[in-house]
Amino acid sequence: MKIAILLFNNFTALDVVGPYEVLSRLPDTKIYFVGPDKKDYEDSYGLKMLAEYSINDISEADVLLIPGGYGVDDILKNTEIIEWIKKIDRTSKWTVSVCSGALLLAEAGLLIDKKCTTHWKRKDQLRNYKVDVINERYVHDGKIITSAGVSAGIDMALYMVSIIENEQAAKMIQLSIEYDPNPPFDCGSPDKVPQEMIDKLKK
Amino acid sequence: MKIAILLFNNFTALDVVGPYEVLSRLPDTKIYFVGPDKKDYEDSYGLKMLAEYSINDISEADVLLIPGGYGVDDILKNTEIIEWIKKIDRTSKWTVSVCSGALLLAEAGLLIDKKCTTHWKRKDQLRNYKVDVINERYVHDGKIITSAGVSAGIDMALYMVSIIENEQAAKMIQLSIEYDPNPPFDCGSPDKVPQEMIDKLKK
C-alpha cells in the first residue's frame, strides 16, 4: 500500500504523526512524505520533518492524507498543490484529512455534498464550501474520511486500518502503541468546556 | 522554558510528537531537538526528523524528554549519550520519558528506587534495574515523570503543563489539540485484550 502524506510549512506535527504511527504499521506499506519541494518543512513550533519527495515525484497513491495547521490558509491559494491533490485523489482508494486539512480537500472540490468534519475552530470556514459539516470524531463518506482536530487523526487511522485491513489488525496496532487514552482533564471538545475558553482560543 | 528532546535512529515518532505538540504550546518555551549529531534521524518506519543540535551543543535544559523506540537498545550501550542524559538531568527541573525511553533514564541511574513506568512490553526489561515499576498511564516521582507506551506521552504532557504552568493552561491546550479521544476499539492496554494478542506482539 502506497500512502502519500502532504507536508507544508506551518503544518501541525501531530496531524501527521498521529495517523502515521498507526498507518505505517499496516503490512506491505510505504509512506511517502511529499512536499511542494523535496526539503524539510517546519511546523508551527520549530520541528522540522523531511519531505523526501516533491509533488512532481508522486503521481498516484492508494491513500492520500492531508494534514492541517496554520499553513493551510496559504496552501488554499496555491493552485499547484490544490491541482496535485485533485490528481492524486483520481488515483486513490482513500482520500483523508486531519484537522483543517479538510479545507484543502474542500478547495479541491472533493467534499461537494459530502458529510465531513474538521477542527472545531475551522467548522465555520469549512461551511463556506458546499459540504455537510457534522460533529463527529471522524466522518466516512464514500472514499473520503475526514477527522476532527489534531489528535483525532489517531482515532481515524485506527478506523482506517479496520476497514483497509481488518478489525484485528487495528486492535493489534492500538495495543502496540498502547493507545488507552487517559487525559488528566475532560475538556478536549468545545461541548465540554465553558464558552469563555472557546472564545479565548477563537481570538 | 528550555525543553530538550533527544532524537536517535529508530526512535518512535509519536513518542516525540505527542508530548511536543502539547509542550510546545507552553508560554515562552523553546524546544531543542538534540541528537548524537546534528542531522536527520529516522524513526522505525521511514519518517525523518531534524536534530538541529548535537549533544555537544546543549549542556542544560529545564525539561529533558527522552522518547523510546526500537533504537533504545542501541543507545543503552552508548556511554556518550547516557553521560549526556546524566549531565542534563543535573540541570533540569523535570526529567521525563515516554515509552521505552525510561530504560535510558534507568541506565543513567536516574530511576534508582523511583516509581516509574514504560511500554507494557518493556516492563520486565525495566525491572532489571533497581526501580519500582508500576501500572499507570504516567508516574510522577520527585522530578522524574515516566509514561507508558507511545501515545501515553500526550496524557503525560498535559499533566506536565498542569504542574509547570497551571490546570487552566493544560485544559486550553487539550481543547486546542481537540484531545477528546474516541478510539474505535477499547484494546489499548494489555489488561483489556486476550492473552494471545499480547503473546503475538511479544514475539
What's the short story on this structure?
The structure is a homodimer. By secondary structure, chain A is α/β, with parallel strands linked by helices. Chain A is about 35% helix and about 20% strand.
Notable features of this structure?
11 strands; homodimer; 7-stranded mixed β-sheet; two-stranded antiparallel sheet; 203 residues; alpha/beta; 34% helix
The best one-word shape of chain A is globular
Number of helices of chain A: 8
**Could you estimate the helical fraction of the residues of chain A in percent?**
25-40%
Low-confidence stretches of chain A: none
What class would the helix/strand composition of chain A place it in? alpha/beta
Largest sheet of chain A: 7 strands, mixed
Q: How would you describe the oligomerization state of the chains in this entry?
A: homodimer
Strand content of chain A: 15-25%
End-to-end separation of chain A in angstroms reads: 41 Å
How many strands of chain A? 11
Quick one: which chains have the greatest interface? Answer: A-B, 62 and 61 residues
